[in-house]
Amino acid sequence: MVVGLMWYFPNKLRPNGDGIRHWCKLEDNLQKYGWIQHDGKNFGIQEIHDENVVLETSFIKFHTGKYGGEWTARVNVKQKNPNRTEPMSLIWYAALDEKTGGRIKPTYATMYGIEGDTKGLGNFKINLHNTKGHVIRQSFLSTTAPSLQALRETVLSNLRLASDKTTKEKFIILAGDTLHPEVKPNFVALQVNVELPFTLDITYQSVSNMSSFAGEDFITLPVGDDYTKLLAKNRKEFRAKFS
Fold first, then answer.
1. Which of 1, 124, 206, 222 has a C-alpha 20 to 30 A away from that of 95?
2. CA dihedral angle for residue 148, residue 203, residue 76, residue 1, rounded to 10 degrees
3. Average pLDDT for residues 195-216, to the nearest whole number?
4. Bridge pairing between strands 112-118 and 122-143
5. d(CA 142, CA 237)
6. Alpha carbon 139 to chain centroid distance?
7. What's the CA gap between 108 and 127, in Å, rounded?
8. Helix residue ranges per DSSP H, the chain
9. Three-state SS for 205?
10. What is the pLDDT of residues 41-79, one digit of tens each?
């Protein structure tokens, strides 16, 4: 399974898909991107500079159980010029590659999430957490993508223009469930339209690991302040070892 992030500015999106960021490409004209710290196993943090915004993405991995463990990731977005405001769309996704058997599907609590199972990962769930900032609206996509190389194009072809019945405001959302009930999706994308600055935490929990945990083995995945403190601890230890 592959998980990842896309983003775009709704007022700059072009019909041909220009403006949707996925893989870092020269034609995207990003001013700067790269890992700031990464120990290859337990945590990493990177910065991406895209016009007026800086995206800081990070993760902390917990090596538990026999299904690869759990993790928390964070997407923190802030403006270089706080006086220049514009909405932004973040898309968190999960996709099964052609050789992976299993299932994924969207879920909903206070925010959209993903659950599923594969042979290698067992049962799992992915939840989004609004840690800081205002979510304008949410939408999701549950569909089939022809390959992992076509995820951006799949998102583009499933964007829809909608409008608020009361205010008549127009906005872009994902198309929802596009499949016949008998067809299993291999690609689920979760979109949050947000006001900046904004912080999104993403937790991956192995349900199969949870069912086999005994007492002290169980962990509560950190979000919010708990994640901030643990990330700072990892960064401090990394600097000391690197020095």
1. 222
2. -10
3. 80
4. antiparallel
5. 40
6. 13
7. 9
8. 151-157, 207-212, 225-242
9. strand
10. 999 999 999 989 999 999 999 998 888 899 999 999 999
